[in-house]
Amino acid sequence: MLPRIVKEGHVHRASYVVLAAMAACSAPKIQLGDPQQEISAMLQRSAADWNRGDLAGFMSDYAKDSLTSYRAGAHMQYGWQPLYDRYQKNYFAPGKSRDSLSFDELRVRALTPDLAYATARFTLSRGDSVVASGPFTLVLQKRGDRWQILHDHTSSDHE
């Protein structure tokens, strides 16, 4: 039964509270953005971090937990820290030569307002030569105002 909101031509103050509460309950809880644009910007920044030698910046796009997963070929890695350690050893160790990273052909599909998957291609290049390239798929979750990678499956064109 709805509360009586008009009495002698006046709206009761409590009725405003009820109406405001009803409006708040019907309002969307998650702000809808543009996942394609947001994830594209994230990957551009990520490549720039890589190219500057900023491993912490590059890794900030991965969810920092033990369930974050990475697959490349037959290699399967679980956990943010082991993935960080792998990148540190293979690409960011002092004196290591690191190739320039770029991403293209990005396609994003939003599954829910805070879950998406993306497909794209990576290219590692040294000067004018392509050292490695291939497709990858990301499963991402929006946490707060940024997307984070839950799973990364990267393949090489040479597999």
Task: Pick out its properties.
Nuclear Transport Factor 2, Chain: A, 159 residues, six-stranded mixed β-sheet, disordered N terminus, alpha+beta, 4 helices, 8 strands, 2 domains
The side-by-side strand order for the widest beta sheet comes to 4-3-8-7-6-5
Instruction: Give the class from helix and strand content and strand pairing.
Output: alpha+beta
Shape assignment: globular
Q: Helical segment tally?
A: 4
Number of domains: 2
The count of β-strands is: 8
What is the CATH first-level class name of the largest domain? Alpha Beta
Helicity, as a percent range:
25-40%
Q: Biggest sheet, open or closed, and with what strands and sense?
A: 6 strands, mixed
Mean pLDDT: 84
What is the H/E string? EEHHHEEHEEEE
What's the architecture of the largest domain, going by CATH? Roll
Describe it:
The chain is globular. By secondary structure, it is an alpha+beta fold. It has helices spanning 13-26, 35-52, 55-59, 80-92; strands spanning 6-7, 10-11, 69-72, 75-78, 100-112, 115-126, 129-143, 146-154. The protein is built from 4 helices and 8 strands. It folds into 2 domains: 1-30, no CATH class; 35-154, Roll (Nuclear Transport Factor 2, Chain: A). A hairpin with a 2-residue loop joins strand 6 and strand 7. The strands form 2 sheets. A 6-stranded mixed sheet has the order 4-3-8-7-6-5, covered by helices on one side. A two-stranded antiparallel ribbon has the order 1-2. The N and C termini lie far apart (67 Å).
